Amino acid sequence: MPLKTSAAMRKDATTSDKLEHRHFAFIAQTIAALPDPRERYSVAYHFALACRSANKNFDHDRFMRACNAISVACGEYRGSAGIPGIGKSAKI
Known about the structure:
Number of strands: 0
Number of domains: 1
Order of helices and strands: HHHHH
Number of helices: 5
Strand content: under 5%
Shape: globular
């Protein structure tokens, strides 16, 4: 999901948290470039846990979509055993 600079700046203007929307967008874009779907999901999941504690307005589902980690989370990728959060209702 491409991020427009103006949208990021507008969102950042309303928060005083250290990690802001533009940071999350950069992290998600980097994670989305990982070639292995299982690794991408695992990295995205663990970053989401950390990001949630850094900003109370963090949107876990939106972040996972931006990381292109939804297909793995939905079980569309075969061989997903052992990946945190899959098959469980993980509360973040």
